[in-house]
Amino acid sequence: MMQNPHYDHLRVERGISRKVAGVSRNGVVTSQHYAAAEAGAAVLAAGGNAVDAAVTAAFTLQTVEPWMTSLAACGYMLIAQPDGTVEVVEFTGRVPSSFDPDFYRPDPQIKTFIGHPASIENRNVQGFTAACVPGCVRGFAEALTRHGTIGFDRALEPAIARARAGLKVDWHTTLAIALAERDLAMDAGTNAIFLPGGHVPEPGVTLPLQQLARTLEQLAEEGPDALYGGAIGERLVADLRAGGSPITLDDLVDYAPLVYPARQMALQGKTLHVAGETSAGQRLLDALGHFDAARGKGPVDAGFFTAMAQALWDSFGAHRRRLNPAETTNKTSTTQVNAVDGEGRMVAITFTLLNRFGARALSPSTGILLNNGMSWFDPTPGRANSLTPKAYAPSNMCPVAITDDDGVFAVYGAAGGNQIVPSLAQLTGMILHAGLDVEEAMNTPRMTTGPHDDVIVNVDMPADQIAALEAIAKVRPAAAVVFPRPFAAPGMIGRRGDAFVGMPDITYPAAFAATA
Length: 516
Hints:
The protein is α+β, with helices and mostly antiparallel strands. It is about 30% helix and about 20% strand. It has 15 helices and 21 strands. It has helices at about 35-45, 50-60, 135-145, 150-165, 170-180, 180-185, 190-195, 210-220, 230-240, 250-255, 280-295, 300-320, 420-435, 440, 465-470, and strands at about 20-25, 25-30, 75-80, 85-90, 165-170, 205, 260, 265, 270-275, 335-340, 345-350, 360-365, 370, 400-405, 405-415, 445-450, 455-460, 475-480, 490-495, 500-505, 510-515. It has a seven-stranded antiparallel beta sheet with strand order 1-20-19-15-14-9-8. A seven-stranded antiparallel beta sheet has the order 7-4-3-11-10-2-21. Helix 2 packs parallel to helix 4 (about 150-165). The two termini are about 35 Å apart.
């Protein structure tokens, strides 16, 4: 585009980033890695539905991008049926039933931008003590039981095959490991797998995942209870306890995903659906309510972005007490999977280990990379988000579904911490208020703002749009590059005539839309 020559020095990459849209009447799966998208699309081609495909893709991701997810991941799943009903399967992380508050007391020396501090010695951020009770395995199993057509074991097959073959290192894997090298070296499990010979692996190396493969095989044979109270859970808890974690086997047995109807809001003749209280869904609805009232229908122009910036400020201000400093950096490891089948059923899954490589600690007897979900909570007593026994974690994750009189119109979500709501609000405005197609919306440069008063603009935005934002706020230009990531990484699926169109994030290297 090169529309603003004075920002040319920020364009490290010479070229226009685009992705090929996946278009099909039979179904599409989008993911931040092509292997996961292709595994999900294969399930659709074999007769499975969107729930089957999304769960299969989600399980596969841990074997190709382990810094994003594992069997210890947490998140949300929106299941939108062809008749327009939308159900949420919430599998967020949960605080153990018992812990020593003094162990997790805040460190007064650690100052954060907003919100709560870390615990002393980073005990709620790194290592075994940072892990909370994980939810994705039970969450995905629940979704398959309620709405799937394949068995839990079938959904694990591609993940098992890839774990047996090992993690093939490409340049992006090398980058991800290098960024976390110091912390990965401190844990015996992560050091052994991700730093062979004590060094960051070069592209072309294969990292062994044999223990994870054995765990996945046992999980497929025995079902999800093998983790939540069975033999896998016993091994995991033994590792956790040895590392100082308060998680018990009873905590795993007691874990249950939450299943409920999605929250709704009417907007521009359609209905938006989001997850419940612990998600950023209400913040998104509030932002879109402000934007709709101020802007209404109209093109994606300068007025679109100034109205959106104000709407985001208003929304973030109202929810400021819940914002989580652990998710205000570019170190989060959230990932997004979307799927649609030939019947028009659509699914959006947003899930995470929280920080890149989670707790940067690995259970050696199971091969499971741990989340660092305890840092979702404020270690200071008496706060809105204080560390409380058995509490489900709040986050910025925010999968979305849109329905209308014809069924499901679109599903989408994003990775990127506090950047998630701004990206999804803009994409919603682009497709509902401006009438853009999913492919066009996903390829339109965006800005981001929220807890901070300044606005980060994509240098490829037209000059008049940036100038309008400069008139109302301090503007920080940034290129949409792989690292550091100044903007969220969304994925989106929608209707296009009598077919469906899917788009992954256009800047994420391995992101892909696979068709059935």
